[in-house]
Amino acid sequence: MAFIAFIFGTVVGSFVNVLIYRLPKGISVVAPPSHCPACGHRLEPMDLVPLLSYLWLGHKCRYCCAPVSWRYFGVEALTGAVFALVYYRFGATVDAGLLCVLFACLIAAFFTDVDQYIIPDSLNAAGLIIGFARAVAGPDAFSTRWLSEPGVQPVTVLGALAGAAVLPGLLYLMILLGNVMFRRQIAEQESQWANEGILEEGERLDAMGMGDVKLAAVMGANLGIAGGLVALLTGVFIGAVFGLALKAMKRLEGHAIPFGPALIIGLSVSVFLGGDVIRWYLSLLAGG
């Protein structure tokens, strides 16, 4: 069954590639049909077989021989692997199915943020809806318990609402603090991007974008406050380590770092390991 989940995930991954390419450009994900971005030729079924078409065609367009980015293959393989992991961890359940849809949205958000420094509102909205759907489908959906017990699952509807309210507030406070701590660097980046025409006149940068705040709401809706905190703190840690590594390699000059991917990794860690992390931390407190 895990292999079937993987195969299904690669098919979904093919659609995720469409989301990554089209959503930031404001293009419909339904029409026009898939086509080569270099020559515009409509792709036939044999060009669209997940993973295999990329290998069969030697990562080139069959019509104009333009190279095809490894990204297409990588996204399909990643989505398949995540679907298989969800099945292995949670079994064939309604919650697992909703998690697969959530991760498809998160993978798309990961790469749109890497490419365009944007997380489309449609992806965050979908993640928020999935979070509440998971809560409603849970075994204890309408309990008055709003703070999850040690572990991440299950999150009640009240817990999902609380998480979706608290987590964005915490991240927004971090943004305000970051704006104060890094105001000189932000001002320099604003000036550079204004000169390059990337920013409109009067437009301002923040230490993080509002798309990240909306993503924090997705965290809270899916994980509640406890699991959401694991995701948020893990994401902040990963983002800080990555930023310091780039700074040490002197690769930050003139470049912003998208924070969404770090948050998405943190969310993923919390989904699969959040309960263990919370229990470990509580055991430390109890031991201390």
Walk me through the structure.
The protein has 288 residues and is an all-alpha fold. The chain has a domain at 142-288. The chain has helices at 2-22, 52-56, 70-90, 94-116, 121-137, 157-181, 183-195, 210-248, 260-287. Helix 4 packs across helix 9 (260-287). The longest helix has 39 residues, at 210-248. The protein starts with a helix and ends with a helix.
SSE layout:
Layout lengths: L1 H21 L29 H5 L13 H21 L3 H23 L4 H17 L19 H25 L1 H13 L14 H39 L11 H28 L1
Helix pairs in contact: 1-3, 1-4, 3-4, 4-5, 4-9, 5-6, 5-8, 6-8, 8-9
Distance from first to last alpha carbon: 44 Å
Low-confidence stretches: none
Cα-based radius of gyration, to the nearest Å: 20 Å
Q: Share of helix among residues?
A: 55-70%
Which structural class matches the secondary elements? mainly alpha
Q: Based on Cα principal axes, name the global outline.
A: globular
SS strand fraction: under 5%
Instruction: Return the string of H and E elements.
Output: HHHHHHHHH
Quick one: how many beta strands? Answer: 0
Major sheet summary line: none
Mean pLDDT: 85
* Number of helices, where a helix is a run of at least 4 consecutive DSSP H or I residues: 9
